[in-house]
Design brief:
3 helices; 12 strands; 208 residues; mainly beta; four-stranded antiparallel β-sheet; Elongation Factor Tu (Ef-tu), domain 3; Ribosomal protein L3, domain 3; 2 domains
Length: 208
């Protein structure tokens, strides 16, 4: 089972055997505890739920706390579900760490992108600006709305200013270049979505 919950530590760079610089993202992965197992007979599909990072009981609601007490597990702050092909040999309470991944593995990483607030069409959609001369009266506006008397409305999907960021983003087929078992950290080539300390879902790549 190659799937874990991780926390983004930040970006750095390392050197390969030929002396080339490789930009990498450091991710703290686990230890993750199996908090629930879903099967085809009971739930209609197969998956496991992992918990990451201990949390005080006072921080959870009674239903959330009851779930952990029923399973006799320490309360976890983050819960994520991963569909897997087989749940054989996996039990509630099992713990998974960085040794789940090896150097050379390909992974898909899902996270929440950084929030950009309210942005215009140039930053949000990559549109071009108008002339910057004082007389142009058109610099960073969204441009023509298009239809006039027919159909007399703006079509859905028109690129306009609005809220940008805070979206679920998945980066596929990233390479694991280093695994630190002592610190439970993996280094992944390239960047991943989200700010520092944001929570990530890491799993085996579907396109590897």
């Amino acid at each position: 089972m190659k799937a874990l919950i991780g926390k983004k530590v930040g970006m750095t760079q390392i050197f390969d055997e030929k002396g080339n610089i490789i930009p990498v993202t450091a991710i703290e992965v686990g230890p993750c505890t199996v908090t629930q197992i879903k099967t085809v007979d009971q739930d209609g599909y197969q998956s496991i739920q992992l918990g990451f990072e201990d949390v005080k009981e006072s921080k959870l609601t009674k239903p959330e706390l009851g779930k952990f007490k029923k399973s006799k597990l320490a309360p976890k702050k983050y819960l994520r579900e991963f569909p897997i092909e087989s749940v054989e040999g996996i039990n509630v309470g099992d713990e998974f760490k960085a040794d789940v991944f090896e150097v050379g593995d390909r992974v898909d990483i899902q996270g929440t992108s950084k929030g950009k607030g309210f942005q215009g069409v140039i930053k949000r959609h990559g549109q071009s600006r108008g002339p910057m001369g004082h007389g142009s009266m058109y610099h960073r506006r969204p441009g023509s709305m298009g239809p006039t008397s027919t159909p007399g409305r703006v079509f859905k999907g028109k690129n306009l200013p609005g809220h940008m960021g805070v979206e679920t983003v998945t980066i596929q087929n990233l390479e694991v270049v280093k695994v630190d078992l002592d610190k439970n950290i993996i280094l992944v080539k390239g960047s991943v979505p989200g700010a520092k300390k944001s929570i990530l879902k890491i799993r085996k790549s579907v396109k590897a």
